[in-house]
Design brief:
globular; 14 strands; 38% helix; four-stranded antiparallel sheet
């Protein structure tokens, strides 16, 4: 039997406030104790499907809008998130990314429109549907004075799981997120990257089919970001749909199957990273490295849109690489300049994002 440390009511309120809706459905008496002692069972009965059934299909956002008072956050958003895909939501700070996530999982009620999962409204069928979602916010939600295993077990209990189910999930889950060897380590002693992994583990203990991650690599250094991204890919291979927000567009480009660009409360474009780059990138990039590195001399007289020099190489932006490449190769041969590296690609998703959000503001 785990002995939990003595924690004040105020600390518990703060820690579990993101999970008020879950607690309301899992354990009403616990919810009443910490949030509203006078809360009563709702009199209105709604149709609820079998709570033992977890949904796993397509998520649809149907012409949804959300306002807080006179502040309009989201405007008439519609999108479809296919089963088993990694969906990335990108936008500047304050564009409405987190609000949209909370509408999808049912934490917020939309001002207009609806969200459905397998054709079931997420508010009407909330008890069954919330068992199919896992949600990891930007803030750490675990207890620092509990170890890894104790935290995961505690969150399993919040979801109403029995000990046998938690035990059967524990080892495989901790191995999946790379915390098996640290299972007895106090959460407060974990590294920043491992703390992020623990948050994700706590959101996966009930084996949801959809995992929602709000800025999962925020404040992590490049090496830790890479570790978390690899972990997300592993989770996705477990046949789980991933919905994530990020402002790191290189990261989104490398991991996401579908990307939604949000600006001023609207989805301005949906598509795969390659589709977006193909549709919105005006130029191609020619990445070139030669033995002499005399790029000014080599490119003199060749029409380009932009040239960016780096330490050893140069990136050349052109609209028609098939016309420019023969000229570059011919001049390199003429100058007896050996080509070490040559690659043609579309510009990054970052450039597409800048164009889309800039146009949305007009």
């Amino acid at each position: 039997m785990i002995k939990y440390p003595e924690i004040s009511k105020e600390v518990i309120q703060k820690a579990i406030s993101p999970y008020k809706k879950i607690l309301e459905n899992v354990n009403l008496s616990y919810y009443k104790k910490f949030f509203n002692k006078d809360q009563k069972e709702p009199k209105e009965k709604v149709e609820i499907i079998d709570n033992s059934v977890k949904l796993s299909g397509t998520i649809k956002v149907n012409t949804i809008s959300k306002s807080f008072g006179e502040n309009n956050i989201l405007n008439n958003i519609s999108l479809t998130i296919p089963k088993g895909k990694i969906f990335g939501l990108v936008g500047v700070s304050g564009s409405g990314k987190t609000t949209l996530l909370k509408l999808i999982v049912g934490f917020y009620k939309p001002t207009k429109g609806s969200v459905s999962f397998d054709g079931k409204d997420v508010l009407k069928y909330n008890k069954a549907i919330r068992k199919s979602f896992g949600f990891a916010s930007q803030e750490n939600c675990f207890y620092g004075r509990l170890n890894v295993e104790e935290n995961v077990r505690y969150f399993g209990q919040l979801y109403g799981l029995i000990g046998e189910f938690i035990d059967s999930r524990m080892d495989s889950l901790l191995k999946l997120v790379g915390l098996f060897e640290a299972r007895k380590t106090l959460a407060e002693n974990l590294s920043t990257g491992m703390k992020r992994r623990l948050d994700i583990a706590c959101s996966l203990i009930h084996d949801p089919n959809v995992l929602i991650l709000d800025e999962p690599t925020e404040d992590l250094d490049p090496n830790l970001r890479k570790e978390v991204i690899n972990m997300i890919k592993k989770i996705n291979r477990e046949d789980k749909t991933i919905i994530m927000t990020s402002h790191l567009l290189g990261e989104v480009e490398n991991i996401c199957d579908v990307v939604g660009v949000i600006s001023n409360g609207k989805i301005v474009k949906l598509g795969s990273p390659e589709q977006l780059k193909k549709e919105y990138s005006r130029d191609f990039e020619i990445h070139l490295e030669t033995s002499s590195r005399k790029y000014t001399q080599l490119l003199k007289g060749i029409k380009t849109d932009k040239i960016i020099k780096k330490n050893k190489s140069v990136t050349i932006y052109v609209k028609e690489p098939e016309k420019v490449l023969p000229k570059i190769m011919s001049k390199a041969k003429q100058n007896k300049d050996k080509i070490i590296n040559l690659k043609v690609s579309r510009p990054s998703l970052s450039e597409v994002f800048q164009d889309l959000t800039k146009n949305a503001k007009k």
